[in-house]
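Appendix B.2, paired examples.
Example (i):
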Amino acid sequence: MVYIVYMFQSFFRKIKLILSDRGLVTKLVFVLIMFIVLRFLTTVPLPGIDTAALTKFLNNNQLFAFLNIFSGGGLTAMSIVALGVGPYITSSIILQLLTMVIPRLKELYHESGEQGRQKFSQYSRYLTVVFAFIQGFGIISILKSQGIFVETSSLVVIQNIIVLMGGSFLTLWIADLISEFGIGNGASMVIFLGIVATIPKHFSQALFSYEPTQLFTYAGVVISIVAMLWLTVAINEAERRVPVTYTKQSRNGITTGGADTHIPLKLTLAGVMPIIFAGSLLTLPQIIAQFATVSNSSLLQTIGNGLTRFQNNQLAYGIVYFVLVFLFTYFYAAVTFDTTATADRLQKGGAFIPNVRPGTATAEFLGVILSRITLYGGFFLATIAVLPLILQNVTGNSSFAIGGTSILIAVSVVIDLIKKLSAQADMREY
């Protein structure tokens, strides 16, 4: 009881310190203003949209539900910022994957410090132009084939693609402003805004579709969501600490080193990237199906119908989704954490892992640990990814289909924001 009281006192003390810090309050207000601006932009639709047809199409489309996460909710009304930071996220992922096969990119990303990271980010923005065009063209083509656009002339199509590309860079600019003048990562905050914006819709749908006979079902779903949120926080913060000891060095009669530290290996080292990879890959069949079903070729129509049946088969879709997330977790962990480079840095810095030889043996030891924790992390991510599908099929209510990606991103952003605010409060306190 005393501990709980102490926690509340500490919480309110930090809140008071945050509110008394004019600079921090200014940053929070700036983020709020940017959120308002972005939400306003999401209400400005592209010209020539049939709103009723768009709403009907979006309610039964997993592809656009997935892409809507990165748009800040802009796809709901097919707004001028419908692409959001999606093209930038895609280009960043592609470049990170290319670091495995292009040594120059690997050196730039991992070994060139802050200047190298800025150069890497610049390359990502160049590639964003390409993906913004591709995604804009794909979305416009799909909506055009569904009769959602009233005007379908080539000039209007080109105009809308250009508007979507401009809206994507406008969203990216707002994200950069949040990163520079606000608090937190701008791109993550934009995605977080899109997730939060969908909560009232899902809540209202669940509320209005409630029947007394579904009391226990709803109670079970609520308990499952709360447990999933708690587990997500716990797993997100879980880490395996590998002990590291620095050797003692004596120069001019002064002894340095000998300190003990650790290498923190997070259980979810890959973060939400495996889910994003898998989700992006599973959207390809739907994109292909949209084009194939309206083709004049009987072969393409057969392929399109087969892909559509796969998308509609929840069991097959869920199994493939689970396996892909699990495999991508291992893949991305290998990309983000180079065991050989880490072992070399430890050896050059005069550090070693107790009872492990420096060099190759250290790299192998870290590789074994990484494989073990990735096994648990991959299983957790895959389970979180398919859990909304399970809830939707158990309850028969589509309002419970809040994506695992959304939950993980939202939790990660909130935890990161709390840590930064807490750090600012601690600095002011001392």
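Example (ii):
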Amino acid sequence: MDFSTLFRTKENLNLDKSTLTILRYIAILGQFAAINIVFFYLDLKFPIKETYIIIFIGLLTNLFLQFKIKVIQLKDTYASLFLLYDLFQLSALLYLTGGILNPFIILLIIPTIVSSTFLSMGTTIILGVITSFLLFLLTYTHLHLPLPGVDTEIFEVPNFYKQGILIAILIGLIFLSYFGIRFAGETKKRSEALNKLQEVISKEYELESLGGQAAAAAHSLGTPLATITVVAKELKKEIGDDGRYSKDIDLLISQTKRCSDILKQISKKQIEEDIFLSSIKFEDLLEEIVNSFKETSSKKIELSSQDDKNKINIERSPEIIYGLRNFIGNAIKFSKSKVKIYLKSNDKEVTVNVTDDGPGFPDDIFNFLGEPYIKSKSKETSANAGLGLGTFLGKTLLEKQGAKLSFKNNQNGAEVKIDFVLSKLIS
């Protein structure tokens, strides 16, 4: 089991105040309605004044929560105190109205379930233990109520029946709390992954726009720098060989020239990039990505495009570039010595196969590939990492461009197959 899903960081330990307030108002109204129906309609006699007082105090605490606590999100400590009060408040009502035999006894687990979804695991465990203790008390200590339709004044059931109800509720408490913790953890991780995805896309587009801004700056600063150079040279003529100022003026001229050269390079680079910025052959894009890895890796990387029947031009999409780089990079990372990239196309689709001679995808995570934050127990994988968030981002970005991905293990390693719909690539 991945225990990372059970724990939540401090910044996520909070509960929306309005959510808790509404839930408590619903609980108070439900308690008030149930008490009155049972007492007046079903004619079951119990200390109704005491129940009214308990419900009224609950109402006051909720009004305090709503109007006196000036926060939107309740931190773990504050939220746990209100949930703890709700436990004791409901337990008191249940004590006065039949204890474990009250049909509403199941509602006693709600505060713990709420905690498991929004608050820390420690808070959830504490509330769970207290809930269990209160359930034990209500099993053996409570006011007995007559049962409508039964002639006996007090309806008694065997202890084993009460114990069965207790065990059933405890099982439900454990199961639902565990589910709430896991659900909240997975939701948090997916939210982080999607935020990371958005960040990656934003950075790619930011880099593209930055190049255009740099070129514009180079053009705009060219004239002021030229003016500074002319003025500096005129000053040097006027001053002559005066050692007090000539060195400073020479430095000014040289640094101005240096700035001009840098801006010329930026502008030139931008012009060169503009040639292929709008479109590029798919084969050339793959070759460009492969060459970038060849500069940093000693492993053999082969690119084959013999079956590329359609030499199509595609936009240099950041999504496609990042996605392809991710899977090619993973193949290089996990391979022993060689990676093969096979490009083929026909009238309907373009396919990229990436294979390596590594250990392959671990069996324990194979069915979860493409999900965020997965971890394998495989020694080869854990030593290198890279199959979690990166794979999720790469898969999501490529699917956004209409691609379909499949994973499999061959005799010699792992294989990733990426199928693009031709019409979506060139549209």
